[in-house]
Amino acid sequence: MELDRDLQQLGVAHRMDHRNNPVLIKCLEAVYVVYYALLYPFYYFWNKRDFSRQTKKNPFYVSKLVRLIEKHPLLYELSMYVLNFPHPTSVYRFFPPMEGKVLQVGCGTGLLNKWARHMGGAEFVNLDINERYLQYGLKKGRYQNTVHSGIYDVPLEDESFDIIVFARCFHHIRHHKKAFKECARLLKDGGQIWIADPVILQEEGSGKQMNAGYMANSSIDGVIWRFTKPAFVKHLADSLSESLRLVSITDVRQPHMTNYNLKYPQTDILAVIEKTADAPK
Ligand SMILES: C[S@@+](CC[C@H](N)C(=O)[O-])C[C@H]1O[C@@H](n2cnc3c(N)ncnc32)[C@H](O)[C@@H]1O
């Protein structure tokens, strides 16, 4: 496979996680057909139609649906449940054990904190650009602290983190080069960036643009990126700053059927990037 060869050349470990029962995945795909029939008309007539009209005027137009979800954290949690049915937190379960000081970028309402609360070992600093989500997480007792900021210019000290996590958040960041530059500043030497994000499984028929990363629709930062796996790896390699090196890619087919995309099946990927001590700062 071309991707395997490319990863080998880059010296990146490539793992496929086959823990999930294929029969379970097939059952969930069947449930998805019901979801699709129920949700797609709503998605199409309200959000997609509005989106295709407005983007002609402004490619970074923020859709009404996204704006509504950003305003109401409860709606965000509900949509996570639907899109990640039956386990909204299953995306976190393939994280390696977390230890040390962890910066959680785009922490949202704190679903990762809720999931990790019995684990100990990690001291979270929770950063998000949406203050409503931070307030909601605080109210629910999921956060000990919050930082209301975007990732490009974080008001925290150099070399203060062991791990920086982007859980389901990377595809919302518009300028990845800038984000990585800031991460390189915030990470200690030998520290790691973990990116857990959905990628599209089905390349054929899913539209030409999905073979390369492309930006669509909107988030608080104005974008949602869509990648296939090879496009994701290439995009990472093109965006990393000098002191950062991609060390592994793990592909985990989740036991949920859709994740973010109503039309094409997706899998989750965990990319681990390391800050090398000997690289220029
Ligand atoms: C899909 S949510 C993921 C939330 C959470 N990590 C989870 O797993 O439920 C993406 C989050 O990224 C945040 N976000 C988007 N762009 C950002 C940026 N430039 N800097 C920081 N956070 C950002 C959004 O406000 C949103 O809360």
Please provide a written account of the structure.
The radius of gyration is 18 Å and the shape is globular. It is of the alpha/beta class and 281 residues long. Helices cover 36% and strands 23% of the residues. It has 8 helices and 10 strands. Helix 3 crosses helix 4. Strands 1-9-10-6-5-2-3-4 form an 8-stranded mixed beta sheet. The structure holds S-adenosylmethionine. The site of S-adenosylmethionine has 21 residues, from helix 5.
Query: What radius of gyration results from the CA coordinates?
Result: 18 Å
Q: State mean pLDDT (0 to 100 scale).
A: 82
The class by helix and strand makeup works out as alpha/beta
- Main sheet strand line-up: 1-9-10-6-5-2-3-4
Number of strands: 10
User: Number of domains in the coordinates?
Assistant: 1
Largest sheet: 8 strands, mixed
Count of DSSP-assigned helices: 8
CATH level-4 homologous superfamily: Vaccinia Virus protein VP39
CATH class: Alpha Beta
CATH architecture: 3-Layer(aba) Sandwich
Task: List each distinct ligand once.
Answer: S-adenosylmethionine
Taken as a percent bin, the fraction of beta residues is: 15-25%
Quick description:
This protein has 281 residues and is an alpha/beta fold.
Comma- or semicolon-separated keywords:
single chain; 281 residues; alpha/beta; Rossmann fold; 8-stranded mixed sheet; two-stranded antiparallel ribbon; 10 strands; binds S-adenosylmethionine
Topology:
Elements lengths: L1 H9 L2 E5 L4 H36 L6 H8 L1 H11 L16 E6 L5 H6 L5 E7 L2 H9 L7 E2 L12 E7 L8 H11 E14 L13 E3 L7 E3 L2 H11 L4 E9 L13 E10 L6
Parallel strand pairs: 1-9, 2-3, 2-5, 3-4, 5-6
Antiparallel strand pairs: 6-10, 7-8, 9-10
Helix pairs in contact: 3-4
